[in-house]
Amino acid sequence: MTLSLARSLLVICAGLVHIVSPDWDSPLNTLIGQTFNLARLMKANSTALLNTYLSHQGSPFSDSGFDARRLRYEGVPTAAIPFLEWRTLSHVKRVEKNYEAYTAFAEFLQLVRDDQFELNPTKVELLDMLKVTRLRIQGLLSNLTAIMSALGAPPAAVTDPLMLESVEADMFEKKVRGYVVCHTYKEWIDRTVKDFSLLAEKFPA
Prior knowledge:
Subcellular location: Secreted
Number of helices: 6
GO molecular function: cytokine activity
GO cellular component, one term: extracellular space
Radius of gyration: 17 Å
Signal peptide: 1-22
Shape: elongated
Protein name: Cardiotrophin-2
């Protein structure tokens, strides 16, 4: 998929915010199918977001071949999991793990957008992509809540990953934090697509 096509999908996805809001009376298989489709759109958009983010951060982030995927940042949820453990997750636990991750990403993406508004206030494309991605995550969280409720296990409160005093950082750390958030979000949405591909098989339309 080309970067321009991925960006076009992001714009289309932004216009569908009201469409993907879950109908809480829908059958479970319908909710899962809707969420699977949403996750696939978000996966396409995640590559464009990461590439656009890197292009506006200067060296070394914008250098050709830059890759620091092993970087981690406290509080940002990692998607890595052993295959057998992932494959044997219960339906509730599988959805719950997604809910916990995207609750954290909703906060971190707001922080990254705030940072970029300070560092790159004229990069409207990037700021809009961060805003739309967060809106998509909020829609995904609504779907996940509906699915967990349909499974008889509504989500419990999630510990807030960010405290006010922990968000202070210098310019370089803000760029690193944003990179980790965008890259790890991409890894998580890849995992979510796999999760819901499996769930769609278990609960066919």
